[in-house]
Every structure is written in structure tokens, then in C-alpha cells.
């Protein structure tokens, strides 16, 4: 008996990818009855679903960000690699290497297999399990950095550039713009691996998720909130020679006045394009990404041995053309609500939460 092609049982709807025989959506853009969530970033994890299936870490992140009452009417934690049968569809979650709890969704029905990667990276990350390629008939991939210009350098080398700058400017504070979920914690862990044992100071908007990571078993070392403004408008010590993590662009707000002549830094894959750093006044751009770069996207398509690749968001045309030259059929899905890149963007800073009474 011939196995059905995945496009006969997995289809694109206005709400997102829908597995028809299982009656379940993968990372839907609107509230649905049953959803499988690949990871906790808000362009994949939306509030209001009646039932949610995800890793325990992703469910914890959703509750922390949305509130328990909006993270799913019922929530089912699924261990990585454990199979689950829904109406004859076998479902497994395998590591995606993107952020803590991130998973690829593997679905098999009548001998046909499709893997929905969510967002992923191939580089090592001390804060989450590494990507595992799964051979399949159709691989669903992102294409955030699907242009040849995007080739991410080793993250350890970028951390060494940061430490060299701190040695060169000991009288200044280094403020690094990072996204609150994934990037902040990865940067902290990379600094610890590089031997930075001193406290790392956090903008208030980053504290809750760092505490959550630690509660989920990811050690981050000593972390402290940035001291409040003193009467004369400056922190007592200004944190000269220290590292501060903050939402992107926080250093351009009045919040930064408490810091000692801050060096503006940011960590993002987009900073491979130097003009982006120049336009935003970033003195020290750190090219550290939680997404696969051009070479990794192509290598992954080869590793999973899929004759067909579906592209959810990003630079679809370039990736589809490159895969076609390698004999792989590729098409863009144009899913609604994707491509926001909230974990890689450099938006205006979020306000710092007010201190508790």
C-alpha cells in the first residue's frame, strides 16, 4: 500500500498548519481547540487554546508569559522522544535547539512522516537540548536567515570580543540588548563558560524569565538587578566594568542614566549586516543568533533526507531556489503571523517593571 503524501493530511489554514486526521494545529496563529506548541516565543505560542500539548518547559514559559488561565484550558506536558497516538497519528517531540523547551513536531500517519521544526539552530547552546535531525518525507523549516550573507560566527568568539572590550574600557559599563526569552539566558551561560564569574546585572524586564530558567534546572550564576537611580541621577557605582543585560534599545532611554558611560551592545544574527548596527548606534554588535544560518539551513535539509521542504517564514525564495538546485522540491507556505522574529528583532525597549511596594 502506498503511503499518502503529507499534503493530503497536513494542510495550511488561516489558523496555521492543521493535521487533519489528528484534528490538531501546530503553532496556530489564533485560538483553536487543540494545539501543539513548538516553543514559547509569541509568534508560535498564542493564548486561548482549549488544549495545549508541548514540552514541560514550554508550558512553564507560556504560563509565565501569559498567565496560567491563558496558556491553555488544559495543558499536557510531553517528554522528548515519547510517542503519543491521536486518531492513528503518532506524534513525537524532538529537540530543536532554539530555546529551552523548544521542540520539533514529528507526525507519522500510514507510513508517511512530516517534521515541523518550529524555529531551530544547529550551534551548541548550554541552555537547551541540541537539534536532532529526523529523516522524513517532508521537512517544514523556517528561513529567517536564508541568505548567503548570513553565516553566523562561533558564539564563543563573539563573547571573547565582549570580554576584550571590557578589558579595554574598564571605566565603562557594557549594556547588551538581548531578547528576554532565550537570548538573555544563552548569553549569560556563554559568559559563564568563558570564565566570567562576577554578577551579571539585569534590567527588570529580564528577571522573571531568568528566574524561571533556573527553576527549570539551567544554572546562570549570580544575577543582580540594576541598582535604582540615586538622588543625583546616577547609580552609586555606575556599574563601571560590569555587564548589564537589557531589552534592545534600553540604553537609549532615561533608564540608562544610572550607568557609567555605557557601551551600547546588542546580540542578534541581524547584526551580521553592519548597517543595522550603525543605524541603531550600536558600538559593539555581537553576532549571536538562535536561528540556523544559511549553511545550517542547507545542511539540515540534507541531514533529514527529505525529498520535499516546506518553508514557513523568512527568506523563502532564496532558500527554495537553493534547495531546488540540490534536487529538493521546496515551496513557501506563507503562514499568517510568522516572520515577526521577536527573538531576533531589535525593537524599542520594554519599560522596566515598577519595583514591588
Describe the structure.
GO terms for molecular function: RNA endonuclease activity. This is Putative mRNA 3-end processing factor. InterPro entries: MBL (IPR050698), RibonucZ/Hydroxyglut_hydro (IPR036866), Xnuc_lig_assoc (IPR026360). Helix content is 21%, strand content 23%. Strand 5 (51-54), helix 1 and strand 6 form a beta-alpha-beta unit. It has 357 residues and is an alpha/beta fold. It has 2 domains: 6-149 and 290-332, Ribonuclease Z/Hydroxyacylglutathione hydrolase-like (Metallo-beta-lactamase, Chain A); 155-286, Rossmann fold. The strands form 3 sheets. It has a 7-stranded mixed sheet with strand order 7-8-9-10-11-18-19, covered by helices on one side. It is built from 7 helices and 19 strands. 48% of the residues are buried.
Number of strands: 19
CATH class group of the largest domain: Alpha Beta
- The second-level CATH architecture of the largest domain is 4-Layer Sandwich
In sequence order, what are the helices and strands, one letter per element? Answer: EEEEEHEEEEEEHEHEHEEEHEHEHE
Q: Spatial order of the strands in the main sheet?
A: 7-8-9-10-11-18-19
Can you identify the CATH superfamily of the largest domain?
Ribonuclease Z/Hydroxyacylglutathione hydrolase-like
Helical content (DSSP H or I, runs of 4+):
10-25%
Low-confidence stretches: 346-357
Q: What distance separates the N and C termini?
A: 68 Å
Q: Helix/strand-derived class?
A: alpha/beta
Number of helices: 7
CATH topology of the largest domain: Metallo-beta-lactamase, Chain A
Count of distinct structural domains:
2
Strand residues, percent: 15-25%
Amino acid at each position: 500500500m502506498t503511503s499518502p503524501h503529507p499534503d493530503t493530511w497536513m494542510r495550511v489554514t488561516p489558523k496555521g498548519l492543521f493535521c487533519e486526521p489528528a484534528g490538531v494545529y501546530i503553532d496556530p496563529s489564533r485560538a483553536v481547540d487543540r494545539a501543539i506548541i513548538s516553543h514559547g516565543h509569541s509568534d508560535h505560542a498564542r493564548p486561548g487554546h482549549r488544549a495545549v500539548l508541548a514540552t514541560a518547559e514550554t508550558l512553564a514559559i507560556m504560563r509565565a508569559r501569559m498567565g496560567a488561565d491563558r496558556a491553555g484550558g488544559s495543558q499536557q506536558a510531553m517528554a522528548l522522544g515519547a510517542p503519543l497516538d491521536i486518531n492513528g497519528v503518532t506524534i513525537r517531540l524532538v529537540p530543536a535547539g532554539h530555546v529551552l523547551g523548544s521542540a520539533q513536531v514529528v507526525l507519522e500517519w500510514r507510513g508517511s512522516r512530516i517534521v515541523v521544526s518550529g524555529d531551530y539552530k544547529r550551534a551548541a547552546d548550554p541552555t537547551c537540548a541540541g537539534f536532532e535531525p529526523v529523516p522524513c518525507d517532508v521537512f517544514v523549516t523556517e528561513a529567517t536567515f536564508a541568505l548567503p550573507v548570513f553565516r553566523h560566527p562561533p558564539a564563543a568568539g563573539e563573547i571573547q570580543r565582549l570580554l576584550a572590550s571590557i578589558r579595554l574600557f574598564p571605566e565603562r559599563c557594557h549594556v547588551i540588548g538581548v531578547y528576554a526569552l532565550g537570548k538573555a539566558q544563552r548569553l549569560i551561560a556563554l559568559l559563564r563558560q568563558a570564565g566570567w564569574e562576577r554578577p551579571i546585572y539585569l534590567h527588570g524586564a529580564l528577571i522573571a524569565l531568568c528566574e524561571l530558567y533556573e527553576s527549570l534546572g539551567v544554572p546562570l550564576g549570580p544575577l543582580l538587578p540594576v541598582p535604582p537611580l540615586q538622588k543625583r541621577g546616577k547609580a552609586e557605582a555606575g556599574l563601571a566594568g560590569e555587564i548589564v543585560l537589557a531589552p534592545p534599545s534600553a540604553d537609549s532611554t532615561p533608564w540608562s542614566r544610572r550607568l557609567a558611560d555605557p557601551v551600547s551592545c546588542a546580540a542578534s544574527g541581524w547584526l551580521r549586516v553592519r548597517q543595522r548596527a550603525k543605524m541603531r548606534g550600536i558600538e559593539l554588535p555581537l553576532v549571536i543568533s538562535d536561528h540556523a544560518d544559511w549553511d545550517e539551513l542547507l545542511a539540515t535539509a540534507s541531514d533529514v533526507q527529505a525529498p520535499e521542504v516546506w518553508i514557513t517564514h523568512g527568506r523563502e525564495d532564496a532558500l527554495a531556489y537553493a534547495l531546488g538546485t540540490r534536487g529538493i522540491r521546496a515551496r513557501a507556505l506563507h503562514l499568517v503571523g510568522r516572520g515577526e522574529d521577536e527573538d531576533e528583532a531589535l525593537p524599542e525597549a520594554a519599560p522596566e517593571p515598577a519595583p514591588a511596594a
